[in-house]
Amino acid sequence: MAGHPPQPSGVSGPHDWLAAADLIDWSAVPRIDVDTGDAPFCRWFPDGRLNPCHNALDRHVQAGRGDVAALIFDSAMTGERRRYSYAELRDEVARVAGMLRGMGVGKGDRVLIYMPLAPEAVMAMLACARLGAVHSVVFGGFAAPELAKRIVDAQPVIIVTASCGLEPARVVEYLPIIAQAQAIAGSAVPRIVLRRPQHAVTLDPAGEHDWHASLKNAQPADPVDVAATDPLYILYTSGTTGTPKGVVRDNGGHAVALAKSMQTVYGARAGDVFWAASDIGWVVGHSYIVYAPLLTGCTTVLYEGKPVGTPDAGAFWRVVRDYGVNILFTAPTAIRAIRREDPEGSHIAAADMEGLRALFLAGERADPDTLQWIERQLGVPVIDHWWQTELGWPAIATCLGLGERETRQGSAGRPVPGFDIAVLGPDGARLPAGESGDVAIALPLPPGCLTTLWGNDAGFVSTYLAAHSGYYATGDNGFFDADGFLHIMGRSDDIINVAGHRLSTGAMEQVVAAHPDIAECAVVAAADPLKGHRPVGFFVLRAGAEHDEAAVARDIVARVRAEIGPVAAFREAVAVPGLPKTRSGKVLRATLRCIVDGQPYTPAATIEDPAMLSHARDALIRAGIAQAPLSQEDSA
User: What is the pTM of this model?
Assistant: First the structure.
């Protein structure tokens, strides 16, 4: 790399993790921070022992804070509101743990949780942690074949579920899905069922137990001592082979990292009201609805509803106002949806949100236009930050708790203390500032990150550690700028080759998203017999857009040509009513690529609205860009 300026340091300096461990109560205080003797596997705080549920609940009660609100539940779907103090939540969780123990659940056993966003779901997770059992939460409403794969992999001894989940336009019955999944998996384990009034069910006495009846006679369970290196939970993320990857999180490293992140990244302290507007089926829900706020002594908000449509684009701001939320964490997709319905921000202006100190965004690339809009509307710092299911907590951010305030448009920030992040070329060498490459993290990963894949150490190594020796490969592409800000431009497979030029579809999306009439967009690569690839854009118009679809399409083609260059060969853009996304807000770009190329595809198990795939296909056909492609179901 002679003659190039050096890459800015990708690590914020040495980190004293043993000092950070003081944030946690230990039954055996660790004296060793990390054991790398079995590299590439590492074990954080190998001589430490603790219980994460005690740290989340009991210790706050013992410190005299039992009357402080721990959990606030707000359902925009039913109008139900519940508030639990730390003492009340501890007592409820102890009884749920006793109920599970009475049904044979013990230390190391797996418990599959398939629940809606209800307080009982949080209780079930914490109850497993209390017993030293390993919980595996699967998003409520997940399709039976995908649920079956997780049952086969985790081999749970019991399933905790509910009669239904609620969507704005429908009730999702859970028990038929679970029955089908168990039949596929060949599983006969019993089920504990929370019967919700929105869908009454008759339980099968041979294998189903009513939550309330079972809880009535349960004896409270005390916290069970576990090793820091014992598994706390398994969280499945999609694999490229169709086999789900069970990310394993440990007890000790997880507790320390999350507690430290609340201080460092979010600037949160005991007594704050922290709201992660997500679902417990996702890593954000695990980390920042359940564990991190409670470890810190915050009040955490559990919201059952949508950013729009339940009932309107003011739903989030009502929750912030009603409960005095200090820190809000959501996905850029939610803000785009709110902006699309309320471009003038009238709902924001009408809400009294004096207590709100910051908004954090993650889960999908936050385009600068959306960031600027919401920052103007709220008048508080809006922090884009980046992490992954596998990492468990933020790796790139502007750390408010460290006094950082500087942000950079298009960047998620600088590396968070503890993460040594590099941008690597194909040869594994660190690239200079300004050059795009593979975003990777030097080993050992900090505490709180995945320790392996459940039952699949070889898959852990081949999936994450094989691409670059000594590094965890994130699968994302990006670059450092001269000031050390890291710009994540998209998945590595979103770098396309147009007539020999390597170009980022993320950079093109940034140009398209800046158009004042566009609410959200995606750019994907189409196979091209002459150029190799060519970019195709999808866009959604904002409510009250000044120009029609054809005019906007012409304008964004011209903008990309002007800002990226003619070499991008960006000539095709189509309007759609909405982008196909997962329920966590990620745009299904790989599926859009299949549609553009006329290739068979299987809709993602976590897709929010399958109709959006049909709309994209129809728009491409009308524009003459693609022939009618088939889903795998159609081709069968």
Answer: 0.84
